[in-house]
């Protein structure tokens, strides 16, 4: 029996199955929210109280677990390239579901350990590693890459469409988690999500996920096979060992990592940052909605035409937006600084969502997409782990977060200058296929 066509055959459907894959991608990104910082942050206060620990204790365990997961993500990329999106999504959702169920019993486990700080730290580090590995790592890896194999001519448009829904649902995630916690408890909220993901999404992925159109007897973009052969450039897939030798890979990867570092660090300490600037929590958390709206508009408009634009040009705009936001963060007490943070984060966030999807298949093909994107995600995760401690140390040493923002701004400006000189890989030449 051909398991690819179980329990139904995508080729026999009256529409191109790639468009349904786009929905699968969006749903996968939503499922990853419990493993993202934005999802975990809704539970941190409750965990601290339940385990009788302080914020620093949990933050250190979370950071260490995140760093370990970053080093482990390349293994997920190799697994993805070998076994495909369907197998990867099923195993990752089972893993994430089980981790959430264990997290829901943290208080009971802590009692069994007599609240021993050493054992608790090891336990929290392990759980944070698994949470980040399956949530931020594996499921996100699958969800970002799966549509890129189903589309070639319309990758930018597809990324723009999915980006709108992902942005809206991500912004609603914390509100939904707070609703669950308020109307049940933090432990029950994690249980509900554990069962929903571990059973519900696992079954969904098993039934509906497909790795690529070729294995289903279809052509990319839903074109007629003869037309596809004439229209689409041959996919010269570069091996990871070749990719790592190119400047453009490191330029984009380090930019994404820098964005992750800054946004995670700034968001993690946003209440304190705004307090020091003489602004309240309402203004602090009020930046998210307008920034999200700008991000959606940028993602949708630029994504629609990105298939005809030079990606390094878009990266320069993203770096410029990051520089604008960081400059605004340094003078946040001013009206200019406040709006610079919102506008800069909105533009950079919209381009980040687009470029992390379309860059690697355009430059390096799709055969080794899992390994290449996983290598990038390793640095992205490492950046997210370093952000909060960097901003915390800045506050500790200078009683201000400006040192951290200036450090990030300096790195961004170096990357921006580099972007003017980096050579673009020749995708038309033969690529290594080790």
Written account of the structure:
- With 434 residues, this protein is an all-alpha fold.
- The chain has 2 domains: 16-231, MFS general substrate transporter like domains (Growth Hormone, Chain: A); 240-419, Growth Hormone, Chain: A (Up-down Bundle).
- It is 77% helix and 0% strand.
- It has helices spanning 18-31, 37-51, 55-104, 106-112, 117-150, 155-183, 186-208, 225-231, 240-243, 247-268, 270-276, 281-285, 288-305, 311-330, 335-364, 369-398, 402-419.
- Helix 1 (18-31) runs antiparallel to helix 7, helix 3 crosses helix 5 (117-150) and helix 5 crosses helix 15 (335-364).
The coarse overall form would be globular
Structural class: mainly alpha
Give the averaged pLDDT, no decimals.
87
Order of SSEs: HHHHHHHHHHHHHHHHH
The CATH architecture designation of the largest domain is Up-down Bundle
Poorly predicted ranges: 228-233, 428-434
The helix fraction, in percent, is over 70%
Number of strands: 0
Task: Return the domain count.
Answer: 2
Distance between the termini: 30 Å
What is the overall number of helices? 17
CATH homologous superfamily label of the largest domain? MFS general substrate transporter like domains
User: Tell me about the biggest sheet?
Assistant: none
Quick recap:
This protein is mainly α. It has helices spanning 18-31, 37-51, 55-104, 106-112, 117-150, 155-183, 186-208, 225-231, 240-243, 247-268, 270-276, 281-285, 288-305, 311-330, 335-364, 369-398, 402-419.
Mind sketching the topology for me?
Blueprint: H1 18-31, H2 37-51, H3 55-104, H4 106-112, H5 117-150, H6 155-183, H7 186-208, H8 225-231, H9 240-243, H10 247-268, H11 270-276, H12 281-285, H13 288-305, H14 311-330, H15 335-364, H16 369-398, H17 402-419
Helix pairs in contact: 1-5, 1-6, 1-7, 2-6, 3-5, 3-7, 3-16, 5-15, 5-16, 6-7, 6-13, 6-15, 10-14, 10-15, 10-16, 10-17, 13-15, 14-15, 14-17, 16-17
């Amino acid at each position: 029996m051909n398991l690819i066509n179980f329990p139904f055959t995508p080729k026999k459907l009256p529409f191109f199955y790639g468009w349904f894959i786009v929905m699968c991608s969006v749903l996968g990104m939503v499922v990853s929210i419990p493993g993202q910082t934005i999802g975990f942050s809704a539970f941190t206060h409750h965990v601290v109280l339940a385990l009788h620990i302080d914020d620093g204790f949990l933050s250190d365990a979370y950071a260490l677990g995140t760093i370990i997961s970053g080093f482990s993500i390349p293994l997920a990329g190799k697994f993805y390239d070998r076994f495909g999106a369907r197998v990867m999504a099923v195993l990752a959702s089972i893993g994430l579901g089980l981790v959430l169920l264990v997290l829901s019993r943290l208080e009971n486990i802590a009692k069994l350990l007599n609240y021993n700080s050493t054992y608790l730290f090891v336990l929290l580090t392990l759980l944070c590693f698994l949470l980040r590995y399956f949530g931020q790592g594996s499921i996100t890896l699958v969800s970002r890459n799966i549509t890129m194999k189903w589309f070639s001519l319309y990758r930018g448009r597809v990324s723009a469409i999915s980006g709108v829904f992902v942005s809206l649902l991500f912004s609603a995630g914390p509100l939904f988690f707070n609703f669950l916690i308020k109307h049940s408890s933090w432990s029950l909220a994690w249980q509900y999500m554990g069962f929903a993901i571990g059973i519900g999404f696992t079954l969904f992925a098993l039934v509906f996920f497909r790795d690529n159109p070729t294995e289903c007897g279809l052509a990319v973009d839903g074109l007629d096979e003869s037309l596809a052969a004439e229209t689409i450039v041959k996919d010269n897939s570069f091996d990871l060992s070749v990719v790592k030798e190119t400047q453009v890979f490191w330029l984009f990867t380090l930019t994404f990592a820098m964005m992750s570092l800054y946004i995670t660090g700034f968001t993690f300490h946003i209440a304190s940052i705004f307090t020091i600037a003489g602004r309240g929590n309402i203004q602090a958390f009020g930046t998210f909605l307008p920034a999200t709206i700008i991000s959606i508009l940028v993602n949708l408009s630029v994504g629609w035409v990105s298939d005809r634009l030079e990606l390094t040009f878009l990266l320069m705009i993203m770096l410029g937006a990051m520089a604008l936001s960081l400059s605004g963060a340094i003078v946040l007490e001013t009206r200019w600084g406040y709006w610079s943070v919102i506008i800069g984060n909105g533009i950079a966030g919209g381009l980040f969502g687009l470029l992390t999807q379309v860059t690697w298949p355009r430059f390096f093909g799709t055969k080794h997409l899992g390994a290449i994107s996983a290598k990038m995600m390793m640095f992205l995760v490492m950046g997210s782990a370093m952000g909060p401690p960097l901003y915390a140390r800045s506050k500790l040493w200078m009683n201000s977060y400006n040192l951290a923002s200036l450090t990030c701004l300096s790195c961004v400006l170096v990357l921006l200058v580099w972007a003017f000189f980096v050579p673009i890989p020749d995708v038309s030449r033969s690529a290594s296929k080790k």
